[in-house]
Amino acid sequence: MPKIDLAERTLPNGLRVIACPDPSVSVVTVHVMYKVGSYDEDPHRTGLAHLFEHLMFDNTSTGILKQYDIYCTKAGGTNNAYTTYDHTSYHITLPAHQLELGLWLEAERMRMFSIHQRDLDTQQSVVLEEIKQNVENQPYQRWMTAMDKACFDPVCHYSWNVYGEPEHVAAVSLDDAHAFFDRYYRPSNAVLVVAGDCQPEQVFALAERIFGSIEEKGSPIERNTYDPATRRKGVHVVEPDSVPTAAVFISIHGPGVTDPAVYDVDLAASLLGIGKSSSLHRHLVNNTRVASHAGAFVDRRTHGSLLTLYAYAIDPSVTADRLYQELVQAVTDTRITDQVMQKVVNRQRTTLAMELQRTGGVADSVAYHATFFEGPDVVNTLLEQYATRSKSNVDAILEIAKRTDEWVRVDVVPR
């Protein structure tokens, strides 16, 4: 895979600007990542980071509602945003000649807080409905909130879900929102990436003209502290839900995103639960036939990731305890050979390479690594990182995963 070209400049107001030129495409993606997520919230005001993502689509100096969608759609583009535990991202993909429009739309979010009470009321209602649809009334989705609470002590800022508590979202005031904006939506807390058919000097000149007048706000941001002692292990939670069959979710604490061992966890997850040849699928779906599907994934977080295994019962006769026993057996029996190691490495590299074929994938990955690592050029080492992982390192992760005293278990069972 060709190396991603990178050029970087920091504006006087602290905004990092990174250009990733690719003349082989005819579009550009403008991506702004703010280093703020649910981890940065107050325990009594959870869900504010995600609510803010919604508010920012109304945060315009023109007063035009849904300005981003209107301008973007008329220009033939697409835009979206997402919030995680550790960051919030906004991205717009447009025809290359509309680069200036994309930069202006993103600068609108950052320049000033223009939200009125009407906008706040509207977006609170939207988010509360989203929580109902995606968590409370969506079968099997309550496990995520339950798992966050089970994996961390209440004092840890990872102990609540990104959506937050509905009553907290409903109670956010305009003053709360204004203070949140002033604290986190500032140039020095953001990374701007432009990927696609662009020239670095063009990007830097436009960024200076459009973003350069945005003033940096206040004193340095005081971050919430993380104590590894707040991690919980050996916890078992039962979550009744309106579901036809039981499901079991197991999470195991792992390293944070900047620890190279997180690549070993990715490979272990691939071996355990990605694809029909994975250990969990073969044992629970094919052999014992107790599950309709089973798998594994890594929930990456700055201070500590979670390796999560899951299985859904094939019919009501299969209990959560039976699923748990078979999960234990599947993990215990997992072995990694040289051939299997090469297979999971190839799979991981292929998935990553495909993601980096898109301007959106490039912009997101570059912004992420610029935000949380020493520099954006880390993105050009990712394929090599997976290629150089050793079988013994992945085996060490598997040995930890086989210790059931490390497991945090959430059962979702029929009411």
Could you describe the 3D structure shown?
The chain is 42% helix and 18% strand. The mean pLDDT is 95. It contains 15 helices and eleven strands. The chain folds into two domains: 7-211, Metalloenzyme, LuxS/M16 peptidase-like (Cytochrome Bc1 Complex, Chain A, domain 1), CATH 3.30.830; 231-414, Metalloenzyme, LuxS/M16 peptidase-like (Cytochrome Bc1 Complex, Chain A, domain 1, 2-Layer Sandwich), CATH 3.30.830. The N and C termini lie far apart (50 Å). The radius of gyration is 22 Å and the shape is globular.
- Work out the helicity level: 40-55%
Tell me the number of strands: 11
Q: CATH homologous superfamily name of the largest domain?
A: Metalloenzyme, LuxS/M16 peptidase-like
Helix-strand topology string? EEEHHEEHHHHHEHEEHHEEHHHHHE
Average pLDDT metric:
95
- Strand order in the sheet with the most strands: 1-2-6-3-5-4
**At CATH's second level, what is the architecture of the largest domain?**
2-Layer Sandwich
Number of helices: 15
Overall body shape: globular
Largest sheet: 6 strands, mixed
- The name of the CATH topology of the largest domain is Cytochrome Bc1 Complex, Chain A, domain 1
Q: Could you name the CATH class of the largest domain?
A: Alpha Beta
Characterize the quaternary organization of these chains.
single chain
The number of domains is: 2
Radius of gyration: 22 Å
Ends: how far apart? 50 Å
Structural class: alpha+beta
| Spans of at least 5 consecutive residues with low confidence | none
Strand content: 15-25%
